[in-house]
Amino acid sequence: MNRREFLELMALASAAALVPSGLCRAVETLLRPSPDVKVSLAGVARGSHEGDLLLAVREAAEAVTDFSWLSPGDTVLIKPVVNSGNPYPATSHPAGLKALISLLKEKGAKRILVSDMSGVEHVKLSPDKMRGSTRELMKSCGLARAAEEGGAELVLPEEEGWEAFFEDGPVSGSHWKSGIMMPKIVNSVDHIVLLARCSRHVLAGSTLGMKAAVGYWRTDTRLEYHHDAATLQEKTAEANTVASLRDKQRLTLTVADQVQATFGPDKGFVVAPPAGLVLASESLVAHDMVSLAWLLECRRAVPEEQKRGRRDPYTSQFIVNMGNRWVVRLLGGITKAAGADRLVRNDLETIWDDRVLKRAFEISGGIPKLSLIEANATVPGDLKRRLTAMTKVE
């Protein structure tokens, strides 16, 4: 399928009334497929001091939202990505977390919570026991200290046990067989801000904003996600339509002055461009369009020998499939692993190849027309032009 055929298919999908209109409008509050969706780009020069990065986070956020959704006294949950204990860019940037906490407090937030649950190779919650600790991993990667210094609270549902989750439902017609088990803490906050990553992923090809939803889920939801792997990419997009996210997520922001451009999610070849970026948008899907374009742009700087074989195993269908079965074994045992679907990789040469984005376009009513905003003077003009071309709907 070429790009034009893909765009025509998306137009037909949006015209077909496959999703109830009321629910479709609700989904749009998160994915926002309306015209001229803003995505900000704040530049960060390589080797800059932390203060420059803190300022870039503020500039990126304020360029896309006026924070009118935040009232004095509100509680905000910041969702970072702590898949391991490895430092940024393998996990979310501590300085980015510190900057968001400071900005949200300035805008009126009374209480700020920081919450995530790490990957099953490091942390596994069972009905009767717990292995590993996201808290310890957050200490290792610097996010715990950033939260503490900023005056936020770490709230880790795994520490409350199996019953600290509730069942939420994705969009009608989804590929999920069961409800998605979300942490109850999301019901006690007024707003959610996602502090995402821009990285390659050994099983999914990339891990951006929508993929970060995995960090909310209980083990049984993660098991279905990986076991029914034939639709893993589609379920990634659909999982972000649960009401607890759809009604409360206000902003997605990624610090990407360094990008883990191979392997992933826990390690890989790191690209540090002369001018890195902080990306932000009120639209999750718009954010991910630009974030994926930035990942592909950074992969151009990766030496060819780093993009082959064991150094970048997403290039191997055999490794992708067997790697997913290994994850299923960790989640549900060897019998579940033996019966798991085949996980089919897809080349990510352009953003239009990404099945996660394709499904997001379908369920949100279409492809957003992006408006890329330079939030400071450090963004190279030619970079903005390239990212605009890579994400432009023709």
Task: Please render the helix and strand layout as text.
Elements: H1 3-15, H2 21-31, E1 37-45, H3 50-64, E2 75-79, H4 94-106, E3 111-114, E4 124-125, E5 130-131, H5 134-141, H6 143-150, E6 153-154, E7 165-168, E8 180-183, E9 191-196, E10 199-201, E11 205-207, H7 219-227, H8 232-239, H9 243-246, E12 249-256, E13 259-260, E14 270-271, E15 275-281, H10 284-299, H11 317-332, H12 334-338, H13 355-364, E16 370-374, H14 381-391
Parallel strand pairs: 1-16, 2-3, 2-9, 3-6, 9-12
Antiparallel strand pairs: 1-15, 4-5, 7-8, 10-11, 12-15, 13-14
Provide structural commentary.
Helix 2 packs across helix 13 (355-364). The longest helix has 16 residues, at 284-299. The chain has 14 helices and 16 strands. The model is unreliable at 1-33 (pLDDT under 50). The two termini are 16 Å apart. It is of the alpha/beta class and 394 residues long. The protein has one domain (3-391): LarA, N-terminal domain (Rossmann fold). It has helices at 3-15, 21-31, 50-64, 94-106, 134-141, 143-150, 219-227, 232-239, 243-246, 284-299, 317-332, 334-338, 355-364, 381-391, and strands at residues 37-45, 75-79, 111-114, 124-125, 130-131, 153-154, 165-168, 180-183, 191-196, 199-201, 205-207, 249-256, 259-260, 270-271, 275-281, 370-374. Strand 10 and strand 11 form a beta hairpin. The strands form five sheets. An eight-stranded mixed β-sheet has the order 6-3-2-9-12-15-1-16, with helices on both faces. The protein is 37% helix and 17% strand.
Largest sheet: 8 strands, mixed
Structural class: alpha/beta
- CATH-derived architecture: 3-Layer(aba) Sandwich
What is the helix/strand order?
A: HHEHEHEEEHHEEEEEEHHHEEEEHHHHEH
Overall spatial form: globular
**Count of structural domains:** 1
CATH T-level fold name: Rossmann fold
Radius of gyration computed on alpha carbons: 19 Å
Number of strands: 16
